[in-house]
Amino acid sequence: MEIYNFMFFKKQNKQEFIKWGIATGFLECVYVFLVILLFNIIQNNNSKMNEFLTGGLFMLLLFVVSVLISGLLVFGKPVRLVLEKKISQALNTFFVSLVTIFVIFVVVGIILFV
To answer: Is the predicted pLDDT of residue 12 greater than 90, yes or no?
Structure first.
């Protein structure tokens, strides 16, 4: 099944949407890993930092930024496809992203706990 993409003036097949879903799921996991690294850096340097910044303000701002980044990664392409009335491609992309995140979660869980 080929889909015509008006933005790039080329045809796209279903595999490209699956690749996009895998890429966004992987990027979401990389982002979570970077946030964990940031938490470790903050924890190691906590004695030098102000409690107000590390406790409340910074964590809430990080939460808001994380929601924005995660929303763009996971929902950005599917929402654009829905607006272009390509519902099945949007659902495929979204569910492939979710499955990719879940598979990485399971693999990391197996590595850590087995």
So the answer is: no
